[in-house]
Design goal:
With 287 residues, the chain is of the alpha+beta class. The chain is built from ten helices and 13 strands. The chain is globular, with a radius of gyration of 21 Å. The protein binds zinc ion. The site of zinc ion has 6 residues, from loops.
């Protein structure tokens, strides 16, 4: 089912994106076995990146985010592509504490940087970064990135909610980005939008019905898509990487360690390659 909606509101002056990211955040939590607090921070970053991925233009576009900070969660990396396949990892998978604004900031960090590499598939990738603001958590960091690095002031809110048993029951993102020609009145209205309240409302009504009831339906731009958690690693892909090691080195590692072991940080999958794989990867030349 499609879980992301993009449209224009306020007479086509503001781009609005809403996404329900519950399933993809739950997949991320499951892949990495995250504690609630780690899941909270990671889920927010995944949701915000879902929005960023939906903004990619080219057909082969990709975007990657990395946060390096003094926070308890360590490094956070999330990538997405034009197909809205999201994946990522978080350094500390077992951060302890209740998920709230304070603990989010402690985990996410107060000193550090957020770097984005965006490849729209056309020419050279765009690299932008900003210093982390020392309050406002994940959402504020993304807003800061848009303001400083893209010079496109954007409002963004993410929600990740758990039930009493600690199970993620809802995740989502809402972002409003005024287009360059937006007038003063529209900008004021956009900055005043109660984004979290709207997202909670759309959660009950469904995204499309909720947005239409609040803002009307734009005749030109009304796009729904599906975002999922999906890693692009595979045995075949990794074999392609290992071939570049060369046969000698690969056989040596297998002799020393029993196998070539590769771990994918994004989906927490272990791969093992043995002599049988090497035989296929490096076929004997006929003499
Ligand atoms: Zn993977």
């Amino acid at each position: 089912m499609n879980n992301l909606l993009r449209t224009l509101v306020y007479d086509g002056q503001v781009s609005l994106t809403v996404a329900e990211t519950t399933e993809l955040v739950k997949d991320g939590i499951r892949f990495h076995g995250l504690s609630n607090l780690s899941a909270y921070v990671f889920g927010k970053a995944l949701s915000a990146m879902t929005y960023m991925s939906a903004c990619l233009k080219g057909e082969t576009g990709e975007i990657s985010l990395s946060v390096k900070s003094d926070g308890a969660c360590g490094e956070i990396a999330v990538s997405g592509n034009q197909k809205l396949y999201l994946r990522g990892y978080i350094g500390e998978t077992c951060a302890q504490g209740e998920p709230n604004a304070q603990s989010e900031q402690d985990c996410f960090g107060r000193n550090g940087s957020l770097t984005v590499i965006r490849d729209d598939g056309y020419s050279r990738p765009f690299v932008g970064s900003c210093a982390l603001p020392n309050q406002g958590g994940v959402d504020a960091a993304f807003e800061e990135y848009y303001r400083i690095s893209e010079q496109l002031p954007t409002r963004l809110r993410t929600i990740v909610e758990f039930d009493e048993q600690g199970k993620c029951v809802f995740a989502g993102v809402i972002a409003a980005q005024p287009l360059p020609f937006a007038d003063r009145e529209t900008l004021d209205k956009t900055w005043a939008l109660p984004l979290e309240e709207l997202l909670s409302e759309f959660r009950k009504t469904g995204l499309a019905a909720g947005v239409e009831a609040r803002f009307g339906k734009d005749g030109q731009v009304w796009e729904t898509r599906k975002a999922t958690y999906r890693c692009n690693c595979s045995r075949e892909y990794l074999k392609g990487v290992l071939v570049t090691l060369g046969e000698e080195q690969m056989r040596q590692i297998i002799r020393d360690d029993g196998a070539v072991r590769v771990h994918c940080h994004y989906c927490n999958t272990d791969y093992e390659f043995t002599d049988a794989d090497a035989d296929v990867m490096f076929p004997k030349k006929k003499s």
